[in-house]
Structure formats: structure tokens, C-alpha cells
């Protein structure tokens, strides 16, 4: 189960990086007015990355 959670963390990091690159390319090609909405997906993916990372650390913490 730990491997699946670790893979999910890496997956969301990869999605956020890839979508950020796409959003930057769209801003470069079409300008800020048309390209700005593309930044929604990288933000959501990065929030999911932070959430999954926090949960993975919490699950790996020893029980007290």
C-alpha cells in the first residue's frame, strides 16, 4: 500500500509540472488573456500533490 501512495505522490507532481509547462506555452503563444485559464489545472494538481504528501507522511509516522 505504501508503494501505491508513493506513486500517487509522484504522479501528481508530474501532472502539475507537465500542465504548468503546457500553460506557460499557451501563454507564450496566445498571450496572457487567452492563456491564463490554463493555470487552473497546475494549481489543482499541485494542491493534490501537497495533500497526498502530507497524508503519506502522516501514515508513515509511528503510532504514539
Describe this structure in words.
The chain is mainly α and 64 residues long. The protein has one domain (2-60). 84% of the residues lie in helices and 0% in strands. The chain has three helices and no strands. The protein has helices at 2-30, 32-35, 40-60. The protein is elongated. The two termini are 21 Å apart.
Set out the fold topology.
Layout: H1 2-30, H2 32-35, H3 40-60
Summarize the structure.
The protein has 64 residues and is an all-alpha fold. It is built from 3 helices and no strands. The longest helix is centred in the first third of the chain and has 29 residues, at 2-30.
Descriptive labels:
64 residues, mainly alpha, 84% helix, elongated
Largest sheet: none
Overall number of domains: 1
Helix/strand-derived category reads mainly alpha
Helix content: over 70%
What is the average per-residue confidence, as pLDDT, rounded to a whole number?
91
Number of strands: 0
Radius of gyration from the alpha-carbon trace, in angstroms: 15 Å
The number of helices is 3
Report the end-to-end length measured between terminal Cα atoms.
21 Å
Instruction: Determine the strand fraction and express it as a percent band.
Output: under 5%
| SSE ordering | HHH
Give the oligomeric state of the chains in this entry, treating copies of one chain as homo and distinct chains as hetero.
single chain
| Rough outline | elongated
Low-confidence stretches: none
Amino acid at each position: 500500500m505504501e508503494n501505491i501512495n508513493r506513486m500517487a505522490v509522484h504522479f501528481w507532481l508530474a501532472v502539475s509540472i507537465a500542465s504548468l509547462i503546457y500553460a506557460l506555452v499557451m501563454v507564450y503563444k496566445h498571450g496572457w488573456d487567452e492563456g491564463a485559464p490554463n493555470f487552473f489545472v497546475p494549481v489543482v494538481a499541485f494542491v493534490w500533490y501537497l495533500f497526498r504528501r502530507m497524508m503519506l507522511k502522516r501514515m508513515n509516522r509511528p503510532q504514539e
